Amino acid sequence: MTARQPTVEDVARRAGVSRQTVSNVLNTPEIVRAPTRARVEEAIAELGYAPSMAARRLRTRRSETIGIRLDPYAGGISGIVLDRFVHALTDQATPRGLRLLVYAADDADDEIARIRRLREGGEIDRVVLTGTFEGDPREAWLAEHGVPFVAFGRPWGEPGTGAQMGDPARPWVDVDGAAGTRAATFHALGEGDRVAFLGWPAGSGTGDDRERGWREALGGEGLRWSTLDSVAEARATVERELARERVDAVVCASDALALGAHLAASHAGRPELLVVGFDNTPVAEALGIASVEQRPERVAEAVLDLLVADASAGDVGAGPWHRLIEPVLVVREREYFSPQRP
Amino acid sequence: MTARQPTVEDVARRAGVSRQTVSNVLNTPEIVRAPTRARVEEAIAELGYAPSMAARRLRTRRSETIGIRLDPYAGGISGIVLDRFVHALTDQATPRGLRLLVYAADDADDEIARIRRLREGGEIDRVVLTGTFEGDPREAWLAEHGVPFVAFGRPWGEPGTGAQMGDPARPWVDVDGAAGTRAATFHALGEGDRVAFLGWPAGSGTGDDRERGWREALGGEGLRWSTLDSVAEARATVERELARERVDAVVCASDALALGAHLAASHAGRPELLVVGFDNTPVAEALGIASVEQRPERVAEAVLDLLVADASAGDVGAGPWHRLIEPVLVVREREYFSPQRP
Q: A215 vs chain B: nearest CA distance in angstroms?
């Protein structure tokens, strides 16, 4: 490059406007009157001015870019909820002037290393965490290094350590799973009082939370079955249980479990048995299975609200720093199947 | 900031290594011996050296970041293929030292405006296009402005204008849909010679291509049904056709169509009728429906290969500049359903 790069000042002089107006045309063109905008854009074209985000970034040390990990596709039915969340985040970040940079990572430590590099390079300046778990080192690291972040998923922790759930240093947004299974169970009680719960083995925060909603709606204990999140295992479990118990309906912790339960009921000659899933995936939609919809679009909105607040100094402490999104139950006209083997 | 920012040279001096070694620790730490790496990292920490990607970017005008549009979730069964592609791209871009920035856009023109701004700001330096269509202005714009890009999806164009398919200025990767339905039809011919095709209305490049594979495998015309990509419409169409035609198997242009065909066959008392879908979605997997797997991970690999080649001056012309990925047929042990209405 031989000649000096044109600056904002050059553009302003050429167009006969203030520097602020040039800045507005570049950053918020919708607030500039059309003739003025046209004049500034003409000056930009004539001078060959290129606004450099990289230069601005160096000056402000703010990239306004959110980093988020995107895991390899693992197959299965439920992964779609996280994909819907990323889609919604992308869609809603753009009009807020935020960008989304996605990265891969092998595990939590690898993700920390990745975040550290992206941040040091000014590539990202805030983070959305997914797949949080107890004792997650990512949250501690981000808090310690002053990186604004919001987690999709609350820290479950040990019973009695609930204090951290309101910790403004660890903001999170989550779906109120218990509210979802509560609604599902109230709906299922219309079929009779023996509403079973098909969940995962105890110990996962999310699974235990969904089970709690069912128990609260029942007002006590009931038929509680547990299996891995597999259609085949769910089907085998429910076939076995239906042979020995009277069951009026089954509330499930996922759509994969619900599909297994639905196939088992059909196979046992009870295609009309009400089964309620969780996640409202295309599978539930295609087969007419009722399911709890997590509303990932609402989760994305809340995450961005907290992330923007967090990134502006002074806002910290203005809380609340966690949001529970209320899911909705989607009830469908049921299709009845009975599987036959030829 | 009062003091001068420490440089790579300061770090090298402090650690007693060469500048190259410092650079290696920053960029390819895996090739540096552990004790040396520890010494350099210690020096970095002591001096508070922050390698600035933004500074490097200003110098090289290369962000090594790929822009890709991510559309809002539209529901349905088949969107998962594009999500798998984005996951795979993220996963494979990271080890190649490339980053992925996702953005939203309302339409092709809006996407061009978005790309222009991100590029002017040094945010992205290459693009992956999805959802290309005939006369797509995005490809023309990118080619004209010298932005390296690769499209997932070939330009179908008018018959006889196939020349542009080999145009090195418009590189693309696509899945050989015709090869997929050809394999599906050969498999289906094991059930009898009356293999029907259930596709979309004529005129979509992708749909016509999938139909072609079926016709080629049949060696001529056959039963050809068409409907929108809806489970309910597919089901109604196939129920109607089964009532008046002898049909040995149905090859479908999507899993949504296959699910509809499967439900129709079951309802018509033919739960054993072989149906083959396309996309190998979780729905097909869960219900045991055979389906053509597009291998989006292979598509991502090919896209990155072309994108990297394209971005390095001198490689242009070394072609081939388009890649057709061969899909595979996934055959499953079938589940037989017959829907019952109480």
A: 29
Measured distance CA(A257)–CA(B286) in Å, rounded: 11
Whole-number pLDDT of residue B342 = 32
Helix (H, G, I), strand (E, B) or coil at A212: helix
Give me the DSSP letters along A106-120. Answer: SSHHHHHHHHHHHHH
| Chain B nearest C-alpha distance from A44 (Å) | 12
Specify the pLDDT at position A28.
66
Of the candidates A177, A166, A128, A120, the residue with the CA atom closest to the CA atom of residue A148 = A128
Q: How far apart are CA B188 and CA B274, in angstroms?
A: 7
pLDDT of residue B61: 44
* CB atoms A103 and B100 under 8 Å: yes
Q: Which of B114, B57, B219 is nearest to A93 (CA)?
A: B114
B241: tokens are 């056709």
Contact criterion met (CB below 8 Å) for A333 and A288: yes
pLDDT at res. B142: 93
Q: Report the distance separating Cα B177 and Cα B183, nearest Å.
A: 10
Chain A contact probe: residue of B11, B41, B66, B94 with most A CBs at under 10 A? B94
Comparing CA positions, the residue from A247, A264, A268 lying closest to residue A256 is: A264
- Return the closest-CA partner of residue A260 out of A278, A112, A81: A278
Predicted confidence (pLDDT) at residue A190 exceeds the cutoff of 70: yes
A71 falls in which pLDDT band (50, 70, 90)? Answer: confident
B238: closest CA among B202, B274, B209?
A: B274
Report pTM.
0.75
Question: Alpha-carbon torsion A124, A128, A132, A135, what sign?
Answer: positive
Q: What Å distances lie between residue A265 and A218, A242, A272, CA to CA?
A: 22, 8, 8
- Bridging pattern class, strands A195-199 and A249-252: parallel
Which one-letter amino acid corresponds to residue A321?
A: W
SS3 A269: coil
Please tell me the distance from the alpha carbon of residue A63 to that of residue A65, in angstroms, as a whole number. Answer: 5
pLDDT of B167 higher than 60: yes
Of chain A, the percentage scoring pLDDT greater than 70 comes to 83
Question: Furthest-apart CA pair in chain B: how many Å?
Answer: 86
pLDDT tens track for A105-143: 989 999 999 999 898 888 899 999 998 887 889 998 998
Determine if the peptide bond prior to B320 is cis (ω within 30°). yes
Mutation pick from A44, A47, A56, A57 vs chain B, by most beta carbons of B within 10 Å, is A57
Contacts of the segment A315-323: beta carbons below 8 A, 24+ positions apart: A316/A168, A317/A168, A319/A166, A319/A168, A320/A166, A321/A166, A321/A167, A321/A168, A321/A170, A321/A171, A321/A172, A322/A154, A322/A165, A322/A166, A322/A171, A322/A172, A322/A173, A322/A174, A323/A172, A323/A173, A323/A174
- What's the whole-number average pLDDT of chain A? 84
Q: Give me the half-sphere count of Cα atoms (radius 13 Å) on the Cβ side of residue B260.
A: 29
ipTM score for this prediction: 0.70
Counting DSSP H helices and E strands in chain A, the numbers are 13, 13
Model confidence band, residue A318 (pLDDT cutoffs 50, 70, 90): very low
Whole-angstrom Cα distance, residue B102 to residue A66?
10
Alpha-carbon A71 to chain mean position: 13
How many other C-beta atoms lie within 10 A of the C-beta of residue B189?
A: 16
Nearest residue in A to B233, CA atom: A286
The yes-or-no verdict on residue B313 having pLDDT over 80 is no
- Residues in chain A with CB shorter than 8 Å from the CB of B263 are 335
